[in-house]
Write a structure and sequence with these properties.
Helices cover 6% and strands 56% of the residues. Strands 3, 4, 6, 7, 12, 13, 16, 17, 18, 19, 20 and 23 form a 12-stranded antiparallel beta sheet that branches. Strand 19 and strand 20 form a beta hairpin. The longest helix is centred in the middle third of the chain and has 7 residues. It is elongated and about 95 Å long. The termini are far apart.
Length: 369
């Protein structure tokens, strides 16, 4: 809903209403192609999972806020996004102790309420116009559109996974799983990676982003007309690719001295590549700044339980990372300031616990007592 806020300096700030609604339909079926009734040597079970999801997002976005009395226009934009995304999964069990699984699916992310409404630059912007002899051109207030884009498409993704679950009969209580995951995202919503000047330099790629008037008297032959409007609002341009391995190991054994258990979960991310624009370099982001995933993260826990007593030790590990991307010249200062080649060392956190549950202890005491 619309909101009005009074600031201490006496200004009234108006926050216009934004909204987003979604209608979704989801269908799923599991088809046991081979089960216990018709199993055979080498095929204990074979199951197919099919799912499909249809979504329609209706989003109304506006400019963030305006100070009442300054006559700042409120821009409203609407966007309707439809998407149908399937998932196909197969589970194959060659024997009782081993299960193989694989899946493929697609997904999408609709533009949100903050990504639709365009705004007019409130300052004078100076650019170099390559189609007018690289002359320096001053664009007055009102000739540059920025912020959101009502024509944005959803971000799209494709994902693949492959893995196994092993529960060996010779080690009762042991479970090991390992999965490989790969995700490719396209049409990621982003600002233009080379800024306002970059949009103008790449006018041939995005001709609808630059509007020009007729040539001026005295313009040399071959020059384009002067810029009348430059649109640098959000683009569907960026791409990303993720690859990772997920490991999980659980083991539990009951003895006369209590139940001992061990569990560990770890993720090794091999790739997080991003391309800001087709034709520009692709960057590897794994282990680069705290905003990106580290190459290895995980935790391990050892626990003992007996007669109401519980003791445990949990260790959490986070791999080291670089403070900045060494492939970017502007990052050299941050790398030098950090020292150690710009690398933050790995970190491990330990938690030790001991507890006693009187109710649980009482239920485990011998009846004679």
């Amino acid at each position: 809903a619309d909101t009005l806020q009074r600031l201490p300096l006496g200004f009234d700030v108006f926050y216009p209403a934004r909204s987003a609604s979604a209608t979704s339909l989801y269908l799923e079926t599991r088809v046991p192609l081979i089960s216990g009734k018709n199993r055979r040597t080498g095929v204990e079970a074979l199951e197919l999972q099919l799912a499909v999801r249809g979504d329609q997002y209706r989003t109304v976005g506006t400019t963030g806020f305006t100070i009442v009395g300054l006559d700042t226009p409120i821009v409203t934009a609407r966007n309707v996004t439809d998407s149908v995304n399937p998932t196909i999964a197969v589970t194959y069990q060659p024997c009782d102790s081993l299960k193989l699984r694989s899946s493929y699916g697609t997904g999408f992310v609709a533009p949100d309420v903050s990504q639709l409404a365009q705004s007019i630059s409130g300052e004078v912007i100076t650019v170099t116009d390559p189609r007018r002899g690289n002359t320096v051109t001053t664009l007055p207030v009102g000739q540059v559109l920025q912020g959101g884009n009502p024509n944005l498409e959803p971000e799209k993704s494709k994902s693949w996974s492959l893995g196994f679950v092993w529960t060996p009969q010779f080690a009762s209580g042991l479970r090991l799983s390992l999965d490989y995951l790969r995700i490719r995202k396209t049409d990621n919503i982003a600002i233009y990676p080379t800024g306002i000047q970059g949009v103008l330099n790449d006018e041939a790629r995005f001709p609808d982003r630059v509007q020009r008037g007729p040539n001026l008297p005295g313009d040399p032959s071959g020059w384009a007309g002067p810029i009348t409007l430059l649109d640098v609002s959000l683009f569907n341009i960026a791409r990303a690719e993720v690859e990772a391995f997920d490991l999980q190991l659980d083991y539990s054994r009951a003895t006369s001295f209590g139940t001992f258990s061990f569990a560990t979960v770890a993720t090794r991310q091999t790739h997080f590549r991003t391309t800001a624009l087709p034709g520009l370099p692709t960057f590897e982001n794994v282990g680069v700044t705290f905003n990106n995933p580290q190459e290895l993260v995980g935790n391990a826990e050892v626990k003992w339980q007996h007669l109401g007593w519980t003791a445990g030790w949990l260790a959490r590990y986070y791999d080291g990372y670089l403070t900045a991307n060494p492939a970017l010249p502007q990052s050299l200062g941050a790398i030098t300031l950090q020292g150690r080649g710009g690398r933050v060392p790995s970190q491990t956190y330990h938690d030790v616990m001991l507890s006693w549950d009187t109710d649980l202890a009482g239920r485990n005491l011998p009846s004679a007592l």
